[in-house]
Design goal:
CATH class: Alpha Beta
Order of helices and strands: EHHEEEEEH
Largest sheet: 6 strands, antiparallel
CATH architecture: Roll
Distance between the termini: 10 Å
Structural class: alpha+beta
Oligomer: single chain
Number of strands: 6
Radius of gyration: 16 Å
Number of helices: 3
Length: 134
């Protein structure tokens, strides 16, 4: 199982008035982590869009354990834990630079035909390159 890592610096724009990361921004960090995970396997989402295919979030189960703060360096870790015909489930975790777990999520991503707005099989060339637990 491959785990992709993405370092992210917390900027002022990521925080609330108290300098704490606003909870919805963890979703943005997870999105970046999934995008970079796919990029590591030369899966470019803009190329998929040209073929009227997109990955869309179907479900997120997120647990905010401890807050990240302004100017901290965090690491987003991403891996695929389940693969189906038209979906991928990612396990994602955000760690403080000292190794402390701050936030975790399981995110179900559906592969969709944009013209029909219906689920479609993940292209074979993607299935062939993405490592999966199942």
């Amino acid at each position: 199982m491959l785990i992709s890592t993405l370092p992210v610096r917390i900027y002022y724009e990521d925080t609330d008035a108290g300098g704490v990361v606003y909870y919805a921004n963890y979703l943005k960090f997870f999105e970046r982590g999934r995008t970079e995970f796919l990029r590591e396997f030369n899966v470019q989402q803009d190329t998929l869009l040209e073929k009227n295919i997109a990955f869309v979030v179907r479900k997120v189960d997120m647990d905010c354990i401890k807050s990240a703060r302004f100017n901290q360096l965090i690491t987003v870790k991403t891996t695929v834990i389940k693969q189906r015909r038209a979906s991928l489930t990612f396990k994602q975790e955000i760690f403080h630079e000292n190794g402390e777990l701050l936030c975790q999520a399981a995110t179900l991503i559906a592969c969709v035909n944009l013209q029909k707005m219906k689920p479609t099989a993940i292209p074979a060339e993607i299935i062939e390159v993405i490592p999966s637990a199942s």
